[in-house]
Predict the 3D structure of the following.
Amino acid sequence: MVSYGPRSLAGARTWDAMETLLSTARKLGVNFFQYIRDRLSGARQMPSLADPIQPRAQTMDLGSS
């Protein structure tokens, strides 16, 4: 049987986290699959996604949350 989507709460949370990472990587021009491979292998040769986010956030007037 083939299904689409999560089958548990943990699966839903994981699905959401991966979708968020994919979207963020896409917006930053980072290859998502290379990034995941880099992180899972422990190589850590690619910069954290936070690195390009921080300078962009400083140029935006986001206010406090």
